[in-house]
Amino acid sequence: MKSSVITFPGSNCDRDMDVALKKFGFKNKMVWHNDIELPKSDLVVLPGGFSYGDYLRCGSMASKSKIMQSVINFAKSGGLVMGVCNGFQILVETGLVPGVLLRNKYLEFICKNVFIKIDNKDNPYFKNLDKDIFEFHIAHNEGNYFCTKDQLKEIEDNNQVAIYYCNNQGKTEDEFNPNGSIKNIAGIFNKEKNVLGMMPHPERMIDQSLSGEDGSLFFKNLINNIK
Amino acid sequence: MKISAIITLKKDVLDPQGKVIHQTLDGMGFKDVNEVRQGKYFEIDVKENDPNKAKGMVEDMCKKLLANLVIENYKIIETQ
User: Fold this and answer.
1) Cα separation of A96 and A69, whole Å?
2) Which of A1, A63, A108, A226 could crosslink A93 through cysteines, CB 3.0-4.6 Å?
3) Is the Cα dihedral A190, A45, A89, A220 positive or negative?
């Protein structure tokens, strides 16, 4: 299975993502933002970081970079595109997934492990996962998911919420919401569910000695789903 | 000619920075403030001397890059 990770100026989780994808069997290529052609890929990943220094709005500049037109075409033809953290911010700026990511509600950069709930499994990313509650890492300043009331209705009607913030029991009350996101939303799909944007970092949870193994479960499952 | 664009958050979008600025102003003794909303201001010098065309160009820029219309409004002002 072939994957591509796009590196923008200011990306800093691109190599972590490369390590994670390779560890679980992807043949990964790093792709520079100024390239025009996307290598043949089964999965394209927009990594975390601070593309273009977060100037203007996080992800706004990167969403207009040369490679993104190919990524958008790839997504529109049904290809799997996953954006993590800054990658999620880039995805919302392209309009591939609805909504925006605002400054965290309490104006603090959040860097910690959180529990997340994944119970929407009718999609290539989470199909066959045999549990619902995962411990992933978040590290962001602008992760406060926001959308209009009309968009929220559409998102919920189409079952597009991919991930919720929760506690270790899977409860999604406000007190387990780290950043003020509407409805504790941590990740969103496009309508077709081939594009996934999420704030939590699965690539930071792939080694028992460093972190935890919940990211390993995600990547192992993902490559099996794509095969 | 120079065209300015002012980008502001829409009414129902939370502006925590504006809130903190309001609180700080309050702490400094500026007690008569109802609300503070923070926005962005751009001065764009374009190679176009027809004011309507120049404004049209900047409006296009606002729609495509400078503003995110899910959360922001823009206002265009001719400055020179």
Assistant:
1) 11
2) A63
3) positive
ipTM of the complex: 0.83
Domain count, chain A: 1
Q: How far is A115 from A134, CA to CA, in rounded Å? A: 6
Q: Which residues of A are catalytic?
A: 85, 201, 203
Q: What does DSSP assign to residue A144?
A: E
Tally of structural domains, chain B: 1
- Whole domain around residue A120: which residue ranges? 2-226
B14 touches chain A (CB under 8 A): yes
* Burial of A160 per CB tally in 10 Å (0-12, 13-18, 19+): buried
Task: Please report, in angstroms and rounded to a whole number, the separation of the first and last CA atoms in chain B.
Answer: 6
User: Which residue is listed with tokens 């406060």?
Assistant: A144
pLDDT at position B80? 61
- Alpha helices in A24-95, H assignment, sequence order: 66-76, 86-94
Q: Is A12 on the interface with B (CB under 8 A)?
A: no
Using alpha carbons only, give the angle B8, A196, A106 rounded to the nearest 5 degrees.
45
Residue A191: both structure tokens together: 């309508």
Chain A contact for B11 (CB, 8 A cutoff): no
Across the strands, what pairs with B77? B4
Quick check: A212 pLDDT over 70?
yes
Asked if the Cβ–Cβ distance from B20 to A107 is below 8 Å, we say: yes
CATH number at residue B39: 3.30.1280.10
Q: Which CATH number characterizes residue A221's domain?
A: 3.40.50.880
Residues of chain B with C-beta less than 8 angstroms from the C-beta of A103? 16-17
Q: How far is B40 from chain A (nearest CA, A)?
A: 9
Can you give the residue range of the structural domain that contains B26? 2-78
